[in-house]
Structure formats: structure tokens, C-alpha cells
Specification:
This protein is an alpha/beta fold. It has 19 helices and 33 strands.
């Protein structure tokens, strides 16, 4: 047989034999020799009645259709499904297809591109998929094919662990891992029970295998099965439907690690209509991204902000740096920023056609030996490809960035500089569903009969809708006082310096970070940042801080030696930061309920003795993004829009809990009463 290795990134796992990819790890083919695309259509699309179900969609319905898959492999099933989706054009133009796929050993773009080229009709979406695949081989990654109304969520890791970590109610399940004899861990009764637990009422299941223990496992999980004719050399395949009542009460709420972190249910109602209204308060990157993501899902959005133009506050610096955070312990912060980092690039492509971002790369230097250990450990835990990040010595870093640097460190090839105002404007202009009410200050909110009213200082109505997303940074005064006190978001002043470039400094090609950051020359100036002064609301430029920023940067970037610190030029703005550096994203908690039911948490009663948390109906938060807003805000917006629209969520439950807006209330309730501290307000 003809055999050749795949691209270098995939060579460890894939060989090609007569045009068919084979896993070296499992010694099994990724699809049938007789014709992979035809097999996919027969076993999975026809076996789950996918085309018929899409044709039955109610015109105008906004309910998502969700497919779950075990074994993403080459992406062939996804590509075939996407092609069928575009061919049929479901009746509702507000309907979105969600495809959530689990994979332990993801392939790279070269293998996916080669698969798509085998069938020319797959190439357009295949090339787009190959270009957008994540460069981190772990975590949860949302890829939005915006023009196609398709969202692909890739969940990398062991399915036995990852399946129960994803908030998902699939309408159909494709089980397409390697053969049970080759990969038995994926086909256990426990895994199949989790498949059923993540299935919607009446969900279907389809698979190419009729192995007895797989059949028995699916039946025990609640599926009624039938044997169907197989494809090619396989005589039979399996298809089935979840029995009525088998999903029990699982659709009532999104499960969490503890009852106080429970979130509202993933909506399953098919009568959600196109054009529902929602108000977003705040036109920084958090609010603008939320507005764009919601409008994409068919909501009519009104954006309100006190400034007359978007990005007037902390999002208004001339440039911002986009890079992930590495930590030594696989923290929620590291996961969220790595996943958000990848999403930002794809979002800019969709919203601004790729304009407003410059992928110049970012160098991160350790501040000391402890930081060096943290960065190296974080790099190992991320399971990163070289396209995401790599540890390089001083000479290699200097070659990348164009300047000698103080030490070895991390190179992020996809690190970027963004134009904040341009991207915020592009987000608000991305849809005719977005209405702007800029230059209007929100003084209060009123909630009556299921409708939120946004009021100005004279009690006049600015906007009203059944739901509100609050994305106004640290400004919480318009919220009810008890609710505002639950969010210990603090003001943190940040000043940047603009200094004139010299002949030597113009050699700098990439961003370099240590205890601050320096951007390459743009319009004759370097941007050097940034100070961090908590509870300081002054917007005046301070000459001593300007000088300090420049002198610190000269200590680790020698091309700045001849740069004059001179007359202060730059900008000061106020960030909103949380105590744990993660934003607060999700439904606002019912503070009175939390105080009543969880105030005694310090007694240590078992979790199961507490009722699920309650939320304020229709009020959602996206605040506390701090200095990493352009890494976290877009993924936060995708999370909020997915929750509000009743779609699969783009993060796992570990990250979901870490972002919960009630987490600081719970922190305080766990302390003994005499040790509690009221959350601080700026």
C-alpha cells in the first residue's frame, strides 16, 4: 500500500493509505475505504433523520438545533453536516446549528484541509475550518461560522471527564469514535449514560457499530434502538431515540459543582421568536461584543452608554495587547484567557473583516525565577502547539521581536495589537438589529411585570426590554444597592505613556512584556504601559508615572535606551477589576435568597442539603474584565449570548463556576460571621 506521513504536526497520529487517513495510535481508519462522505450521510445524517427534522422547523423560530459528537477525528461528519445545512436552508433564518464535538487527540489544519480536498464540495467550509482550528490541544473552543449560521464547539480531552463538564442538550448524537475493540474507553456504559444525560427530550442517536455492549449500554441509558443497513463492508448500523421521560428533570437547570452556582435552564422552547428585545448598558468592548453576539442570534439590541462614542472608558486606549495568561496550576484564568485569545482572532475576522488587529506576536519575559517557573509550568499544562506559544532563549526571542531582550521567555506568535475603538465601532455596526443610545447616563433601573426600564437622572425612559446585560465596568450605582454590594468590582487607574521612536527603537517588531509592556512604533510613537492604581479615579496624566513607565521598560528592552521620556503624553483610564482577576459573567444572583439560604455556609452542611440558587429575572452581568478586557470580553459575550438564547455554552463547568457573579457572596458566607467583610465598593 502507498503510505506517506501527514504534515509534521499530525505525523505522530496519522498516516495515509490509498487516500484514507489511519490513526497510528489506534491502528484504525478514520472512515470507510468505500467512501467516507457517503458513509457519513447514510449512517449519521439519514440515521438521525437530520434533513427531515430541519425541514420541519417552524418559520421564525430561534431555537437552536444541536448535534453532539463523540470522536471529531478529521472533521468529516461536521463538514458533511454543514454542507447539508447550507443545502437545505432551514425555514427559520434565525435558527442556528450548534455542533459540539469531543476529541482527545485533535488533528491539525493540514489533515483537515486534505480531507476536505478529497471531496471538492467540502472544500469551502473545510478550508475555513482548517484556518480556524485552535492551536491549543486542550479546553473548549467555539468556532463561529457566522455567515453560515453554524457554531462548532470543540471539546478537547478525555471524553470520560469532559462530557459531564459541558452544559449541553443535544437534539442528535453522532457516536463515531474508533472501533470499540480499538478504543473501548469511549464506549463504556458510563460514557453512554452521560450521552443520554446530555440529550434533549426525544433526541436521536446514530452510530456505525452494532457491538453488543454498545447496544446494551445505549438501551440502559434510555435509548430505544433499531438496526439499520450499514454502509460498505459493514452490514448494519444503529439508530435510536431517547425514550419519553428518560431526560427526567435535567432540563430544569444547568448543573454546577454546587447549588449556589446553578444557572437558568438551557431553553428548549420552540416558540422563542426572532426579534426579542434586550438592552446592553455599556459601550466598551464588553458591551459592544455582547450586543454583536446577541444581534447575531436574532435579538433586537439597544446599547446605552454615557459617552457619545463607543470605547470611551477603559476600552479607549489607542492600542491594546491581546495575549493569554499562563499559570502554574491550570487555573480558570489560564483556561478562560487561552480560549478567549483564540476566539478574539476569529471574532475580528467575522466582525471587522480582519481589520483592527495586527498579529505581530508577543514576547513575555519572566520578572524573576518564580515567574519563570510559573510560565514554564503553564506552557506545559496548556498542551500548546508551537503556533500558540513556545519557550525560547534570549537569542531566539531577539530574532522574533527585532530587539535584544533581558532574558529567555515565552513567544506567542498569535499575540496581537488591536485598535479598541475601531473594533467596538465595527461590533455596533455589524447588524441593523443594534440601536445606539450614546451620550445618555443610566441613573436607575426599574423592573415591573417582566420588563426592565432604563431610566435617566430625571426619571425619563431611555430604553426598556425583558432583559438587560450590565457591562458598565465598575459603575454599579444604578443597580439596586444590595445587589451592587455583591459585586466587589474595584476601580483601578491605568496610565499609558506615548514616547517618540528613535532609529534604534524602530527595529522592534513585536510587543514585549515584563512588568509592563512596550508596543512597536506606530505613527512615530511607542506605547508603554501601564500603571495600576486601585481605587484611584483621576484621569489626569502624572509626569512621575510617565517617567517611571519608560525607565522600567528600558531596564529590559535595550532598544529604548535612546528614547526620551520628555513631556508626558498618553492617557489615563479606569479599569474595573475583580479580586480574583476573572470577570463576573452570567445571571445576577437574587441577593435576598442567597442571604437567606446560604448565609450559614460556614457551618459546613453537605452541599446536597441546600436548594439551587435563584437569579434576578432577566438581569445579566459582564463586568470586572480588568486589564485583559480584549482577551476575556469576547468569550464572555459569547457565553452570555449562548445562555440567553438557550444554546450550548462555550466553556466548561469549572470555568463557568469560576465566572459566576455570585461567587464573592459565597466566599463571604463561607467565613464565620465575625470574620466576614462586606464587599468593597469604589
Amino acid at each position: 500500500m502507498d503510505e506517506m506521513p501527514a504534515s509534521r504536526s499530525d505525523a505522530e497520529d496519522v498516516t495515509w493509505r490509498d487516500g484514507v487517513p489511519t490513526s497510528s495510535r489506534f491502528e484504525d481508519m478514520y472512515f470507510s475505504v468505500e467512501g467516507g462522505l457517503a458513509e457519513t450521510r447514510h449512517v449519521f445524517l439519514a440515521g438521525s433523520r437530520i434533513p427531515e427534522r430541519w425541514r420541519e422547523t417552524t418559520p421564525g423560530a430561534r431555537r437552536p438545533f444541536t448535534i453532539g459528537e463523540l470522536g471529531f477525528g478529521t472533521g468529516l461528519n461536521f463538514l458533511a453536516t454543514a454542507l447539508e445545512w447550507e443545502r437545505l436552508e432551514p425555514a427559520s433564518d434565525a435558527m442556528r446549528l450548534h455542533y459540539v464535538a469531543f476529541e482527545r487527540y485533535p488533528l491539525g489544519g493540514d489533515a483537515v484541509r486534505r480531507i476536505a480536498a478529497t471531496w471538492p464540495e467540502l472544500s469551502p467550509v473545510g478550508d475555513e475550518l482548517a484556518r480556524r482550528l485552535p492551536t491549543v490541544r486542550r479546553g473548549v473552543h467555539r468556532i463561529d461560522f457566522a455567515s453560515r449560521r453554524i457554531a462548532l464547539t470543540l471539546v478537547f480531552g478525555d471524553v470520560r471527564e469532559r462530557l459531564e463538564q459541558i452544559a449541553l442538550r443535544a437534539d442528535a448524537w453522532f457516536l463515531d469514535g474508533f472501533a470499540p475493540s480499538r478504543n473501548p474507553e469511549m464506549w463504556t456504559e458510563g460514557v453512554l449514560a452521560k450521552v443520554a444525560a446530555a440529550a434533549a427530550e426525544g433526541a436521536t442517536v446514530a452510530t456505525y457499530t452494532v457491538a453488543g455492549f454498545v447496544r446494551r449500554g445505549l438501551e440502559a441509558a434510555g435509548f430505544d434502538l433499531e438496526r439499520r443497513p450499514g454502509y460498505g463492508r459493514k452490514r448494519e448500523a444503529l439508530a435510536g431515540r431517547l425514550r419519553a421521560g428518560a431526560s427526567e428533570s435535567r432540563v430544569d437547570e444547568v448543573e454546577a459543582s454546587a447549588p449556589w452556582f446553578v444557572r437558568p435552564a438551557l431553553a428548549r422552547s420552540s416558540d422563542a421568536r426572532d426579534g426579542e428585545r434586550i438592552v446592553v448598558v455599556g459601550a466598551g468592548i464588553a458591551g459592544c461584543a455582547a450586543a454583536e453576539r446577541l444581534a447575531r442570534r436574532g435579538f433586537d439590541v439597544t446599547v446605552v452608554d454615557r459617552d457619545r462614542a463607543p470605547a470611551g472608558g477603559a476600552s479607549g486606549n489607542p492600542h491594546a495587547v491581546v495575549m493569554p495568561v499562563l499559570t502554574h496550576d491550570d487555573s480558570a484564568l489560564a483556561r478562560f484567557t487561552a480560549e478567549g485569545f483564540a476566539l478574539v482572532h476569529r471574532w475580528v475576522e467575522d466582525v471587522a473583516g480582519g481589520a483592527g488587529i495586527e498579529r505581530c506576536g508577543v514576547v513575555q519575559l519572566p520578572r524573576n525565577d518564580r515567574w519563570r517557573e510559573r510560565l514554564r509550568s503553564g506552557l506545559d499544562l496548556s498542551e500548546a502547539t508551537p503556533e500558540f506559544a513556545a519557550w525560547l532563549d534570549r537569542d531566539a526571542l531577539a530574532e522574533r521581536c527585532g530587539s535584544p531582550v533581558a532574558s529567555d521567555g515565552v513567544w506567542f506568535p498569535g499575540g496581537a495589537i488591536v485598535d479598541p475603538r475601531r473594533l467596538c465601532e465595527a461590533a455596533l455596526d455589524a447588524s441593523t438589529r443594534i440601536r445606539k443610545r450614546l451620550g445618555e447616563r443610566v441613573a436607575a433601573l426599574r423592573h415591573e411585570a417582566g420588563v426592565w426600564t432604563v431610566l435617566d437622572s430625571e426619571g425619563g425612559t431611555i430604553a426598556e426590554a425583558p432583559a438587560i446585560v450590565w457591562a458598565a465596568g465598575f459603575e454599579l450605582d444604578a443597580l439596586p444597592e444590595r445587589l451592587a454590594s455583591a459585586f466587589p468590582v474595584r476601580a483601578a487607574r491605568g496610565q499609558i505613556a506615548l514616547v517618540p521612536a528613535t532609529t534604534a527603537s524602530r527595529a522592534l517588531r513585536s510587543v514585549v512584556c515584563r512588568d509592563g509592556y512596550v508596543l512597536p512604533e506606530r505613527d512615530g510613537m511607542h506605547l508603554v504601559g501601564a500603571t495600576y492604581d486601585r481605587d484611584d479615579l483621576s484621569l489626569m496624566l502624572r509626569p512621575d508615572e510617565h517617567t517611571d513607565l519608560v525607565m522600567r521598560a528600558k531596564g529590559w528592552l535595550t532598544v529604548l535606551d535612546d528614547v526620551a521620556d520628555g513631556t508626558p503624553r498618553g492617557r489615563a483610564s479606569i479599569r474595573a477589576e475583580s479580586p480574583d482577576k476573572l470577570p463576573l459573567v452570567g445571571p445576577a444572583p437574587d441577593v435576598d435568597f442567597y442571604a437567606s439560604e446560604y448565609g450559614g455556609l460556614h457551618h459546613g452542611r453537605p452541599y446536597e442539603s441546600y436548594p439551587p440558587g435563584r437569579v434576578v429575572p432577566g438581569l445579566w452581568m459582564s463586568i470586572g474584565h480588568g486589564s485583559r478586557g480584549f482577551v476575556t470580553a469576547v468569550l464572555a459575550a459569547e457565553l452570555l449570548a449562548s445562555e440567553i438564547a438557550g444554546e450550548p455554552l462555550p466553556v466548561d463547568r469549572y470555568v463557568l463556576d469560576a465566572l459566576h457573579p455570585a461567587r464573592f457572596l459565597i466566599r463571604d458566607y463561607r467565613r464565620a460571621p465575625d470574620a466576614r467583610r462586606l464587599p468593597s465598593r469604589p
